[in-house]
From TrEMBL:
Residue ranges, annotated region (Disordered): 424-450
Biased amino acid composition, Polar residues: 425-437
Organism taxonomic ancestry: Eukaryota, Fungi, Fungi incertae sedis, Mucoromycota, Glomeromycotina
Listed Basic and acidic residues bias regions: 438-450
Transmembrane domains' residue ranges: 383-405
Signal peptide: 1-21
Domain of life: Eukaryota
UniProt keywords, alphabetically: Kelch repeat, Membrane, Repeat, Signal, Transmembrane, Transmembrane helix
Protein name listed in UniProt: Galactose oxidase
Pfam family, one: Kelch_KLHDC2_KLHL20_DRC7
Amino acid sequence: MLKNTLTYFVLLFNLIQCLLTEINGVSPIPAFKPTLRHLHAATVIDDKLYILSGMDDTIGGIVGGTQFFYLNVSAPFNTQMPLYWHDLTSKNIVPPQIGVTAVKGGADNNTLILYGGRNLTNIESKALVYAYDTQGNSWNIPTISGENHIKRRSLTAVVDYQGKVYLFGGKLLEFDSFVNDMITLDTINFRWGKGSSTNAPSSRVNYGATLLPNQNIIYIGGGNSLNESLPLDEVFIYDTNNNNWSTKKTSGLIPSNRYGLTAVLGLDGEQVIVYGGLGNKNIIINPEESLYTLNINTFEWSIPKITGNIPSCRYMHRANVIGNYMVATFGVGYNITEGDILLLDISDKNEFKWTTTFYPPPPTSAPAPAPAPPSTPSKNKSVVIGLATGFSLLCAFTVGMFFLYKRNKNRKVKVNTLHIPNGKLDNQSGQKTVETTNKVDNHDEEVKQV
């Protein structure tokens, strides 16, 4: 009985999954193979890794990429197998650009905010910001109040917990010059602001930056206007609460100069993981020296213990922390046999592991979102149908299992229960007479009706 029940449950679960997948228009078949790229944008929102823009390396690196796509990271995958990329290019209104930067923001924290970049077509886009609604699957150019700014590229956007984006440095497109000022963007009210430039780092592009637990932002390395890689013997801290800069000297195994690197916060919140980059005079960095960690309490560099097959060193890539992994996407300098995605398991701070298999984190209970404004029935039609279908099937399954259980129980009663009419014994056998009831037959009928 238990074995059959589990079988029915698995079949029903698969049926619900298939129905919901079909209703919501999600295909399990790989949609397409993205082109190689670098200087692109990679942003994680909910359970999707969105990628767009960047230099298209399949045709000599002279055209900005027009593809817009995402990877569902709520399911396991292997980087050596065809990845289930989902193509959104038909919805894209962003011109082909390089050196863009993107974050997650907006009132509900589910909007992809894309800033800057250089358009490689003849007509340069004047829009500084594009916003993609991941719920409505649509782009728009938001109206932003406050002082307007000159478009810039090759910087790293960092967003805080209040949806405020910090944009430091970069290269001005209009004057072809490097800058070291700080501008901000409130992605909830869409208002420009300006941060302090006092004691700021020198002008730079393609640096590493990430938000620390204390709401400070750390800036590491990069390249200057002389096409030189900058040293990592010092890092720069921007205090978002007090709007000021400070410089920290580093120690330990200090990495060589590099730009086009990435920096992410480790899962323990006590170290920054720096990966990749290109050395001074465009020297390719050895794979064994491509990964470092910086203790944010002591500002000491070290090379972590690493297992697995060390990949080639990439630069101009992007890196995001998803679950237990640092996920590096695309870039320059790698063998395509390694796959477009690199996975570094950082769950054990004492031993990182390069791997090819991704396992999503278990679901966690999240606080209830703020009430959303009423939406039109057409917008939520697929969601309502999907939920109704799943709920109906689940109810049918539950009722069915209840009656199967009752039928099994009453069959047992049928065999073991003796009914004695008038309290008499059978004259021939001396055994009590057994009569069955119609109770089991009635339950069988009820199960058929369900």
